[in-house]
Amino acid sequence: MTRKSEQQFNKMLLWHQKVHEHFNENLYYFVLRFKGYQRQYRDNIQEASISQGIVGICIYEVFGDFDILIRVWLTPSMLLAFTKILDSIASLSYYQVMNVKRISHWGFMTEPKLEFLYNATGDLDLDVVQRDIREGNYNSIKAYADAHLAIIREKENENGVKFYSALHFGESGVITKRQEDEIYKSLIEIQEEILNKKSDEIPLIQNLSFYFGDGFAHVLAKGNTSNFVVARKFVVEQIIRRLRTLLPEVTTYAICDEEPYESDDVSRDALETFHQGTPPIWITNWFPDFFKLGGDPKIVTKVHSLLANYEIIIRNLPNDYLINLLNPLLESVITENPDKAVKEVLYWFSTVESRLYDNNNWFSFLRRLSGCQGEEVSIISKQIEARVGTKQPPTFVDLLNKYCWALKEYRPDSPLLGNKTPTSDLSDMRNIFAHGQIFIKFNEIWERLFNLLMWFLPLYTGINIISKLKCEDTEN
């Protein structure tokens, strides 16, 4: 077997993260340390991986605390197989893993057309596309490239150095969701400045990408440069300048392998498993029957596409919202049976409304936002109700608007608000369910309801969290 990269024509096929995830693959990075490293170890890992059908793998020899860095796409079953390969290597003294959850890749800065992926699977066989690329035929990739789902990467500058910088934040190693978002925003700004080379002071760094996750690093930064020392110094300084309060620690691995094995292929195991009907893990966690319900394939595809568009929001929602609200709603859509949706969704709306009516929750929420106590909170409440024009008794819209006004007043930059606050639309949707009109219009309005929920559920989650935090503070 040749050790040379599979790019026989100095080119490499790269799939968008969403393509891999569509086939239930997740990206992992491993760093390996050996007892007395030998180059043969690298070859052994490559051969053992390919024999197990693990083909979306890059294996690099590195300078630094470790000997090898591995980038690999794995399904859950393949993850188990791969760790068994590593555990069977007697000379391997230590390894660490990073589970990648989010990627900002230099080659995929444009939003992908996910509808094309869901509709094309089966019509454009990825196995055929990958084989064509290996044989130097690039015609079959065009449709995927036009949909921003794949690119052909030219072989990186042979005179340059590819490097990875592992970023770790926080003294305890634990960071909050808000800190994650702050890190993501800052690193995207750095990436944009470097890739667009917005000033002459910025060194030339090609193919700069960031991988966000958990494990041995919170973030991996990857780039290619002809001046490694200057480039690394610049990237590290930019990170420290923007994120100093999060105590960043940086460890850099320079690739020293002249002919690494590199492949970004989707494995045959993932392709075959998908065709048997296995949705991504982040869906099966709360909707295990997604592909088992039957139904019109066009409707299933539409539901899948909507879920993918809101993946980040859905991943961060409480599990009971997913199981008790989204699951029955989407099951009703796929099976074209609105009865289940009416029963479950209307019950959920009733629960929400009763919580919003509860003055204890409202005043706890206000105390937390304003920092005020006692009579001052009552005065603030009356002022907000006057601005909203709250009726007596208040309507569902009044209740929602009260919370939104409080956020606008005391947390104007809160991501919970978003660009719009369609409280009236959500109330209208609740009324459609309550008055039985859903049976007539279900096929027309379920998507509208889903989009509204993707606005409301993060807001409602935040309201509950803020209220409970203040309750706990008061009790203490």
Give a description of the structure.
The protein has 476 residues and is of the alpha+beta class. It has 2 domains: 11-262, Alpha-Beta Plaits (2-Layer Sandwich); 279-475, no CATH class. It has helices spanning 17-22, 39-51, 76-87, 114-120, 126-134, 142-146, 177-195, 228-243, 268-275, 281-284, 297-309, 311-315, 319-335, 338-357, 359-370, 375-388, 396-410, 423-434, 438-475; strands spanning 11-15, 26-34, 57-63, 68-74, 92-104, 150-154, 161-168, 206-215, 219-225, 249-255, 261-262. The strands form 2 sheets. The protein has an 8-stranded antiparallel barrel with strand order 2-4-3-10-7-9-8-5, surrounded by 4 helices. Helix 4 runs antiparallel to helix 11, helix 13 runs antiparallel to helix 19 and helix 15 (359-370) packs across helix 16. The termini are far apart.
The Rg value, from CA coordinates, equals 26 Å
| Percent of residues in helices | 40-55%
Strands across the major sheet, in which order?
2-4-3-10-7-9-8-5
Shape: globular
Major beta sheet summary:
8 strands, antiparallel, barrel
Number of domains: 2
Computed structural class: alpha+beta
Low-confidence runs: 1-9, 470-476
What is the CATH homologous superfamily assignment of the largest domain?
Answer: Lrp/AsnC effector binding domain/regulation of amino acid metabolism (RAM) domain
**Helix count?**
19
N-to-C series of helices and strands: EHEHEEHEHHHEEHEEHEEHHHHHHHHHHH
CATH class designation of the largest domain: Alpha Beta
Into which percentage range does the β-strand content fall? 15-25%
Which CATH architecture of the largest domain is right?
Answer: 2-Layer Sandwich
Q: State the CATH topology of the largest domain.
A: Alpha-Beta Plaits
User: How confident is the prediction overall: mean pLDDT?
Assistant: 84
